[in-house]
Amino acid sequence: MSDICRLRFELRDGSVQLIEKTVKLRLYKDRYSAAAVLSGRAVWDGQVGDVLGITLAADGHTVHHGYAEYIVSEQKNGRTEVSFSSPGWSRLLAQNEPVPGLNYDVTLETLIQTNVRIPYVTYESGTQQVNYVYVKEHSTIWDAITAYSRKAYGTFPYIKGTNEVTVQVPAGAIRAYGPSDIIGFGTAVDRRTALSKAYMADIDDQYSYWAENPQAAADRLVRERYFPLDRQWLDNPSEGPAIRVDLSKRRYSVSYVRLVGYRREELFDNFSAFSSGRSLAGRIGGVEVIFEKGRAVTTLYVMD
Question: Which SS3 state, helix, strand or coil, does residue 66 take?
Fold first, then answer.
């Protein structure tokens, strides 16, 4: 599979090994996750405990760089295979706690500087300043970045490229796909995390702030949650329950197109696809790439 992608293991002694034979690889990222995740199987006879980092290159560019979160070696059919899961290094932002308290007059850069440094993670520069970001005890650095992003730009943060934290929505590349590119179209509805309504307490412990998901109500889904006053949103209390509802419904309605090949599609690229009377157009909200048997298959997701 070296003609379409190159998998490498970064070892404890500082060396890097090119994996000559892969069985199947899956790379997935979306606009709401703190990292891309690469998983798969490959033929390799080495010490799995020595694998610290994993990279994947396609079309001459690195498209994934992460740590070896889980890796297993097994001998079968006369060869040794390793199965692994490798989140991008930025996943650690969602697994480390920030310094609790109020952070005044912060940009993305100054917010990050107050917390532990995560290796290989970079950040969008030149972002605007917000009055404050409140960090709750036992929240995560990614939570703090999310609060900053929502206050500064009304967005959720996402990972650009391999491990760049980004908060502004880019213009994105323009892509078009025709019948020769397209395998098929599909739709999905994911109601597993969706809230129908969220309430937040005020300073008198009355639940006077609330937000609802009209689509959940239309679908007969009843799932209500009550939250304490979130000091993050004292200057705009209605935003507290609204952000919880928005996050809960992020994959509620999804459309996708499956394509032959991989062209290094990126989140927020604009695309249109048309084949056999069916079409799909929009901004890319998620990308899945399967590398198997010498070819790549890419699925582009549009998330409403």
Answer: strand
Q: How far apart are CA 33 and CA 159, in angstroms?
A: 7
Report CA-CA distances (Å) from 189 to 7, 95, 257, 259. 33, 28, 15, 21
Q: 3-8: list long-range contacts, CB under 8 Å, 24+ apart.
A: 3/294, 4/58, 4/262, 4/291, 4/294, 4/295, 4/296, 5/56, 5/57, 5/58, 5/291, 5/296, 6/56, 6/57, 6/58, 7/40, 7/42, 7/54, 7/55, 7/56, 8/54, 8/55, 8/56, 8/57
**Burial state string for 113-143 with b = 16 or more CB within 10 A and e = fewer than 16:** eebeebeebbbbeebeebebbbbbeebbbbb
Angstrom distance (rounded) from CA 52 to CA 40 = 16
Q: What pTM was estimated for this model as a whole? A: 0.91
Query: Angle CA(39)–CA(302)–CA(26) in degrees, nearest 5?
Result: 10
- Residue 6 backbone phi and psi in degrees, to 5: -130, 120
CA gap 285, 66 in Å, rounded = 21
Closest CA to 159 of 106, 261, 89: 89
User: pLDDT digits over 100-148, tens only?
Assistant: 888 899 999 999 988 889 999 999 999 999 999 998 888 999 999 999 9
Distance CA 10, CA 217 (A): 49
Q: Which residue has the tokens 């940009």?
A: 107
Measure the CA–CA gap between 303 and 250, rounded to whole angstroms: 7
| Placement of tokens 């996750």 in the chain | 33
**3-state class of 204 per DSSP?**
coil
